[in-house]
Structures are given as C-alpha cells and as structure tokens.
C-alpha cells in the first residue's frame, strides 16, 4: 500500500533503493521483480513468431465468402456437382479491335485463348464454354425437322464460306446476347472455377489465376483483340494486386502516428518504443496466425493496422503516465510500476472489450468474417502482453527525456494544493470543464439526444448489400468496373444471375406439371423491376414445339404431352438439368445485384414456392452469383443487430465487473451507442450498404471506442471516491489520460482517413467509417461522458481538510 499525496499522486521516490520491491499486486511483483526474464522471453517469442510470420500466406476462398449454413447455400452446395458453373466463375469477353468476330484472325486468336484458359489450374473444364467448345451448339427447324450441330462448322478453316456458315450458326444458336455480343464485335469465354485444384489438391490460388489472366492480356491483346474479365476471382485478384498500395497506406499511418505522438512528447526514444511495441504486437499476431494455419485475405489484411492503432492508443497512455511520474522526480522503474498499478485494470478491461467486439463476429455464419474475428482477437490478446506488460517494463529501462518529463507537468502545476485552479488552465481544458456543470451538461445531453433521434431516423434507410453496380469493393473507375460496364453494355444476358433449382423425382424434370409451374414462375419474375430475362427447360420445350410445327410461333406453348416435352432434353445445354432428370434450373438474369433487386426476386420466388411446392416439385433457392449474394445479404442483415446486442452486452458486463456501478456503466456506454447510431446514419448518407466488408466496422467501433471512456472514467471515479468534486476529478483525468485520448483519437482518425485515396473502395469506406468512429468516440469520452457523470455519478462528499483527504486516498 502506497499513500498518495494531496494531489492524488503516489509519493515521489527518486532512488530505487528506497522503493519497496514487495509492494503492489502479486502480478506486478512477478513481472517487475523479474524484468530481465520477461524481456528475454518476449525476445525469444519475437524471434520465433517473426520467423513464423514470413510463412503467412495471402489468399482468398469463394466458399469463405458465403454463408454455408444458410438454407439457400446448403441447397446450392448439395447440388453443386450437378450445377457446374453456377458458383465461382469468370467471364472473359474477347473484343475485336477492328471489324467483327467473323474474321479468320479473330477466330484463331479466340481458339488460342480458349485453349489456354482451358488448361489453367482450377478451371472446371467440362463446363467451360466458348464458341469453340463442343457444348456450344445451334438448333434450327429445317424441311427434314429439327437439325443442329456445333456452332463452329465442321472443317472450319477461316475461309469466307466457313465464316458465313459460322455467322448462320451463331444466329441459330440462341447465344446472341449471352456468348456473342449483339453487335458481333466480341464473344465470351465462360470459365467456371473449382475450390480445389485437382492437380495439386491445394485451395484455388486467386493470385496465381489473376496473374495468368494478366499474362493472357499481355500475350493476346497485341494480336488485335482486347480482353474484358469479370467475376469473383478477378475481383479478388485485383484486391490482392492492390495490397501493395495498401501496405503503403499502412506505412503512412504508422508514420503519422509516430510524428504526432513525437510532437506531443518531444521524446524520441519513448515514442519509438511505443511504436515498436505496437509493431511487435502485429508481428506476434502474424506469426501466431501462420502457426495456427490461418491465411490473410483481402478483407482481413487491414486488421493488423487496427491492432497497431489500438496498441498505439494504449501505449501512449502508459508512456504519458510514466512521463508524468518521472517529471515529478520519481525513478523510472518506480514510475513504471506506478503507471502499471493505475492503468493495468483499465487497460485490460479496454482490451477485453476490444477482443469481445471482434470475437462476437464469430456468430456470423460467413467464414471470412469468422476468420477476421479470430485474427483480430488474437491480435488484441497479444496487446495485453506487448503494451500492458512489455512496454512498461521496457520504459522502466529506457525512461524518458528530462525535458519531455518536465513539459508533461506544466499544466498540472497550475493546480493548487487544495485541488482548485490557479486561473491559468489551458483554454481546451476550461471548455471541457464546462460539461461538469449541470447547465452545460444538460445542453450536451440534449444535443446528443437530438443527434441520436435524427441519426436513428436516417439509419432506418440503411440497406443490406451492394448499392452500386459492378464490384463495390473496387473504385468506380477501376479496370474491373470498366470491364463490367462493357459486359452490361454489350450483352443482354446479365452477369448477375440468380438460379432457382427445381427438384423432382427421377425422370420428371420435363413433366408437364413441372414445366408449367416453372414457366409460370418465370413469367412472374419477368414482371419484376430489375429482371431482364429468364431461361429454363420450359422455354426450350416451347421452342421445340415451334420447331416441330414448321417454325410457327403459335405453337410456342407447353403441350401436355410428356413425349413431346421430353424432346427438350435433346437440345438443352447440360447446365439446364442433371443426368437423372431430377433437377432443372430456372435462370433469372438481373440488371444488377443491388440489395433491393435481390430482395424482390427472392421474395417472389419464396412466395410462389410456398404456394406451389409439393412432393413432386420443390423450388429451391439459390445458385448463381446473385443467388449466393442474396443469401449473404440475408445473413448479414440478420446478424447486424444480433451482433450489436452481443457486443454491447459483453461491454456492459466487463464495465460492470470493473466499476461495480450501473451508473458508471451507463456513463461509459451511452456515448458508444450514440456513435453506433451516427455511424449507421453516415453509411446511409454516403451510400454504403451493410455487407461483408462493412459489417465488422460497426462492431469494431464499439470495442475500440470503449477504450477512451474507460481510461477517462477510471481516473474520474478514483478521484470522486477520494472526495473530490467532479470538476477537479475530470480535470485531473484530462491531465493524466484525457489529453492522450484526444491525441490518439485525432491521430488515428487522420491516419485512417488517408485510406480515402486507396484504389480499393472497401478500404476507403472502412477508412471513412473508422475515422468517424475514432473522432466521435473521442468526443463522447471528452464531452458527453462528463455531462452524463454530472447527473449519474454520486456527488462528492466534503471532507474535513486536505490532510484528512490525503489520508483517505490510497493506491493499491
């Protein structure tokens, strides 16, 4: 037990010999009485985990991006082997630089590209489709009946006659608008992909595949064509390729944080130490991820920066406390132990809240988010060792410069021994102190209530899913989104496809009762805004009826004749039904994959399926990229509020365990609630939807934001319990932890705001949201927290005199 002086500070001990090494908690004695052993163990861990970090891989997985437990995805995965190409795929549009596709040179180049793509690792070869594949066929009605064949004529040699035959076959194939552009200036190679490369048994390598596509462009574009590539694999490839620039933003953020903290402390060695400990935490995190078999993906690659940011925030608090004690004349080892005593519990609680904020993301049934939760939780757990334990011990060796230490106490000198101001308080502290008075506190709470009400009203318009066409993960002017715009402009069949699976008994996929219901559902879907077209076995059966009746479109109907309908199987592509004729597909081509479009289509299918499903015909959602995204949107939308309940529940419990007061918990948590509401409103204003990339930020803002409140409130409560007024307690909190809260809040907000210029749009979005949350959580801790404390926390009880007050203050 060490008694504090009248200013609430522990006694100044200038010589280490005068300090009782057996004082403090058992944990403190274990750590600080064995400093060399602790540093040695951390050095060994750093060397080992640093080596492990060099083996960490960066990759992505299609199945990790989808909610595999959702009924839609479960249905898709159950029939995945029968639905080749309806999941992860890319489309390569080969555009003729001059003329049309009916050119010998173009067709030879297309064949070379198609053959090259066919042999790429991870391609689902039986389902690859282009003008040169045998599965691309034409069908026509002739005098002899229905005739057909491959689109590429037998003996094609590029001569004018064979090119004319090719033109005729393309016109009869039904592929105009799908594999062939309506202006005949380009054609598509459809490339379905596997999750595991059969040759190696390893997961599909998106970086390698994207590099192969780049090599295709480099090789064949000089031959008079231009390649446009869309699909999940290409998006991931572009994201991975853009990570080099992401690393530059990481370096810039580290530099900004270092320079701002240095400008505050004017002490190079302690600032370097804080930064290095935060980077060591990142290195430990990456090493542990490699050791545990995790991989970084484009969505979790930003987590190490968040770990660094949290580490800088906590490290600056420890450095500031030690700096102030050294400025009073305390030996650096004793100062480190004092700071450890005062801030360890608050720091531990804050980090546990951070960890919980990350960990609750595990409840979301999307593997990439679950991995992000584990990666972030591991990083925050590491910070407990590097920034709460290792940093104070290292600072006990290094200390801080004398000038920096004396500068840190300049404002505290303006407080008299009785705890009152001497009149020279900094203008910022005078302004913030106003919110400890009931009048200004009431104004602050009223403004916060108005902001909460207005923000909540705006947040009701928050959408789940993508709100923009193309790939919202990338900037609108990115190469991918230009390619996507090319596809939309030149192909009637959208690349956004939702596939309804229709399950029947064996050999019943062309039964009249099946096809009539599929045809009715297709008609209903075509009436919806956002649906461009549909295609199914029912449509093919109608076309077969026309073909058998001399091309007369009066026969474009479903005839209740099982034999006649069964002929559709002879002209249907293999993705339309399975071998047992127990599963057929209804393709729904959408204008886009925006949240509202998907929601309308899904609702219509579910409503129709509920009324028309029986043991012989069952409508199952969903395959196709749009179907998978619809399931993802449903899971994200459901998890959003459930996640916040868990986050806030865990934060409230941890705060209550720390403060043992519901009033203190409310004081700390209410500013976080305001920030969450305003963050959702900001997403609406900026046109952001809640999706895989943005959902984690909402939870992270709660966990990270509570750090500020805990550091400020822990000091305020300790002085209030000692009998001081709220004004004095808050002022001392500002001098000890509050100004560092302001420093780190502004620093980290500026650092992540630089992400706005990232080529990766979801990183830019995360930067905007995190900067907003850093700033508002800081303002909440410095403005709304004292205002709430004015009404919620108990009033200080007067004490007899300063000596009596000093006797009542105890630091354990």
From TrEMBL:
Q: Which UniProt keywords apply?
A: Cell membrane, Membrane, Transmembrane, Transmembrane helix
Residue ranges spanning the membrane: these are: 30-51, 246-265, 272-293, 299-316, 343-366, 372-400, 440-459, 643-662, 669-689, 695-717, 729-756, 768-793
InterPro entries noted in UniProt: MMPL_dom, Mycobact_MmpL, SSD
Spell out the coiled coil positions from the record. Answer: none
Task: Look up keyword DNA damage and say if it applies.
Answer: no
The topology of this chain with respect to the membrane is: Multi-pass membrane protein
**GO cellular component terms attached to this protein's record:** plasma membrane
Q: Read off the Pfam families from this record.
A: MMPL
State where the protein is found.
Cell membrane
| Span of domain SSD | 279-397
Q: SUPFAM superfamilies given for it? A: Multidrug efflux transporter AcrB transmembrane domain
Q: What is this protein called?
A: RND family transporter
Please name the source species.
Azospirillum lipoferum
């Amino acid at each position: 037990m060490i008694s504090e002086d009248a200013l609430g500070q522990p006694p100044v001990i200038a010589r280490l010999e005068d300090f009782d090494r057996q004082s403090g908690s058992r944990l403190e004695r274990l750590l600080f009485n064995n400093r060399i052993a602790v540093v040695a163990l951390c050095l060994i861990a750093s060397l080992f985990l640093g080596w492990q970090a060099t083996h960490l891989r960066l990759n992505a997985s299609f199945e990790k991006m989808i909610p595999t437990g959702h009924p839609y995805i479960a249905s898709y995965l159950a029939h995945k082997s029968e639905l080749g190409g309806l999941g992860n795929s890319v489309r390569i549009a080969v555009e003729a630089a001059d003329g049309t596709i009916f050119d010998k040179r173009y067709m030879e180049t297309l064949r070379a590209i198609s053959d090259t793509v066919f042999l790429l690792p991870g391609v689902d070869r039986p389902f690859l489709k282009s003008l040169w594949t045998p599965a691309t066929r034409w069908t026509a009605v002739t005098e002899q009946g229905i005739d057909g064949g491959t689109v590429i004529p037998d003996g094609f040699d590029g001569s004018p006659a064979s090119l004319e035959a090719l033109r005729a076959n393309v016109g009869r194939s039904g592929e105009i608008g799908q594999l062939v552009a309506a202006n005949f200036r380009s054609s598509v190679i459809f490339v379905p992909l596997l999750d595991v490369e059969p040759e190696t048994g390893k997961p599909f390598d998106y970086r390698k595949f994207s590099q192969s596509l780049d090599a295709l462009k480099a090789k064949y574009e000089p031959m008079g064509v231009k390649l446009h590539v869309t699909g999940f694999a290409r998006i991931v490839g572009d994201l991975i390729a853009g990570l080099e620039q992401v690393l530059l933003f990481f370096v810039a953020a580290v530099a900004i944080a270092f320079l701002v903290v240095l400008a505050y402390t004017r002490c190079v060695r302690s600032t370097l130490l804080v930064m290095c400990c935060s980077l060591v935490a990142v290195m430990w995190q990456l090493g542990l991820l490699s050791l545990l078999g995790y991989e970084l993906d484009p969505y979790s690659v930003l987590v190490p920066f968040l770990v660094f940011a949290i580490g800088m925030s906590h490290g600056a608090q420890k450095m500031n406390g030690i700096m102030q004690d050294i400025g009073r004349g305390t030996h650096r080892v004793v100062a480190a132990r004092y700071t450890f005593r005062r801030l360890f519990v608050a720091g531990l609680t804050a980090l546990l809240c951070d960890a919980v904020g990350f960990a609750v993301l595990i409840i979301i049934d999307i593997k990439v988010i679950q991995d992000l939760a584990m990666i972030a939780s591991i990083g925050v757990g590491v910070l407990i060792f590097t920034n709460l334990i290792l940093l104070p011990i290292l600072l006990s060796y290094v200390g801080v410069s004398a000038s920096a230490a004396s500068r840190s106490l300049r404002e505290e000198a303006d407080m008299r021994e009785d705890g009152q101001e001497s009149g020279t308080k900094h203008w910022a502290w005078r302004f913030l102190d106003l919110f400890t008075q009931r009048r200004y506190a009431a104004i602050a709470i009223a403004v916060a209530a108005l902001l909460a009400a207005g923000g909540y009203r705006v947040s009701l318009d928050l959408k789940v899913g993508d709100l923009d066409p193309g790939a919202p993960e990338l900037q609108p002017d990115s190469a991918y989104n230009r390619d996507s715009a090319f596809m939309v402009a030149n192909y009637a069949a959208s690349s956004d496809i939702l596939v309804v699976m229709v399950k029947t008994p064996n050999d019943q996929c062309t039964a009249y009762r099946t096809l009539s219901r599929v045809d009715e559902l297709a008609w209903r879907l075509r009436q919806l805004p956002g649906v461009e077209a549909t295609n199914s076995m029912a449509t093919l059966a109608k076309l077969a009826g026309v073909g058998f009746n001399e091309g007369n479109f009066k026969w474009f109907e479903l005839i209740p004749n099982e034999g006649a309908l069964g002929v559709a199987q002879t002209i249907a592509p293999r993705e339309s039904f399975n071998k047992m004729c127990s599963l057929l597909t209804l393709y729904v081509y959408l204008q886009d994959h925006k949240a509202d479009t998907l929601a309308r289509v899904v609702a219509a299918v579910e409503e129709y399926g509920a009324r028309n499903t029986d043991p012989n015909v069952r409508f199952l959602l969903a395959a196709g990229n749009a179907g998978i995204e619809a399931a993802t949107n449903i899971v994200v939308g459901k998890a959003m509020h459930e996640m916040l309940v868990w986050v806030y529940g865990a934060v409230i419990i941890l705060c209550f365990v720390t403060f043992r007061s519901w009033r203190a918990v409310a004081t700390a948590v209410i500013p976080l609630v305001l920030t969450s509401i305003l963050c959702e409103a900001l997403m609406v204003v900026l046109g952001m939807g809640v999706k895989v990339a943005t959902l984690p930020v909402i939870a992270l803002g709660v966990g990270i934001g509570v750090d500020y409140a805990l550091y400020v409130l822990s000091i305020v409560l300790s002085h209030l319990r000692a009998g001081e007024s709220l004004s004095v307690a808050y002022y001392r909190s500002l001098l000890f932890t509050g100004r560092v809260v302001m420093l780190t809040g502004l620093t980290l907000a500026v650092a992540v705001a630089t992400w706005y210029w990232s080529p990766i749009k979801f990183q830019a979005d995360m930067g905007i949201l995190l900067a907003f949350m850093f700033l508002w959580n800081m303002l909440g801790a410095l403005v709304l927290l004292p205002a709430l404390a004015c009404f919620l926390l108990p009033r200080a009880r007067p004490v007899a005199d300063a000596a009596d007050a000093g006797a009542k203050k105890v630091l354990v």
